[in-house]
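Lab notebook, design round three. We kept the backbone fixed and only want residue identities now. Task for the bench partner: fill in a sequence for the structure below.
Input structure tokens:
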């Protein structure tokens, strides 16, 4: 799933369209049903920003569009072609460039969903104190891995950045939130903010050390990286049992 850094990179990429009068089209039937293209067509794109895993596009006339990429959507900027291939959700055409949304199942003419979000991990600067305050009010029995991905608490961290951040801070995703003290929580959040900001500024994600590396040796100690699903959503956690000591699930050895 695209995470906060992906959306911030997308917002940066689409900046050449800001200030342009937009020609908008949708070819995907579900996107056409949202009426986003016909609503923004002919309006000027005033800003493109990201918050958490959401892209927010503001147009003249007070029109606002929210895009969420879910599991596999993507935004990209390309030279204007005036031709289309496939069924993109949305094409925003300026004078010389066009932004293309493919596979983006959430496209709305409002931003009501943003009201529930926690502070953005990629805000400049990130409000770590506000995030910690939300964590203090969270369910203390949930695992740390699940908690970090709760967008109501902290916006922008997904499964990949959870795994990578906890690997770098040498913290097990299987700790209960109640077992993580305030200084360690602060360290984890600051590490996530710093590493995700570096990924935005560099324009690419760093090499993975834990996520997606189940069964491969840990880069620090050589122990085999393990993986197992967490919570009701069964999101896969990746961790090194040696470098990230703590409670672990009952994973059969041949599956870990």
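Proposed sequence:
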């Amino acid at each position: 799933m695209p995470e906060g850094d992906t959306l911030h990179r997308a917002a940066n990429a689409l900046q050449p369209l800001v200030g342009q009068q937009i020609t908008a089209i949708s070819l995907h039937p579900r996107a056409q049903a949202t009426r986003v293209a016909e609503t923004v067509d002919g309006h000027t794109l005033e800003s493109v920003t990201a918050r958490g895993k959401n892209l927010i596009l503001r147009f003249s006339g007070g029109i606002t569009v929210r895009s969420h990429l879910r599991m596999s959507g993507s935004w990209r900027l390309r030279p204007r072609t005036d031709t289309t291939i496939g069924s993109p959700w949305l094409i925003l055409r300026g004078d010389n460039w066009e932004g293309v949304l493919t596979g983006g199942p959430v496209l709305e003419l409002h931003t009501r969903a943003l009201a529930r979000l926690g502070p953005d991990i990629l805000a400049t600067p990130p409000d770590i104190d506000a995030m910690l305050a939300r964590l203090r009010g969270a369910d203390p029995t949930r695992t740390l891995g699940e908690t970090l991905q709760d967008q109501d608490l902290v916006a922008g961290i997904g499964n990949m950045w959870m795994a990578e951040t906890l690997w770098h801070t040498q913290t097990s995703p299987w700790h209960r939130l109640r077992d993580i003290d305030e200084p360690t929580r602060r360290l984890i959040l600051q590490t996530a903010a710093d590493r995700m900001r570096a990924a935005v500024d560099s324009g690419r994600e760093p090499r993975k050390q834990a996520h997606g590396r189940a069964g491969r040796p840990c880069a620090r100690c050589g122990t085999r990286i393990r993986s197992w699903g967490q919570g009701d959503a069964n999101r896969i956690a990746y961790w090194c049992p040696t470098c990230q000591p703590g409670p672990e699930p009952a994973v059969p050895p041949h599956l870990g």
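Keep this in mind before ordering anything: Strands lie at 23-25, 45-51, 54-59, 63-68, 74-79, 90-93, 97-102, 106-108, 226-230, 235-239.
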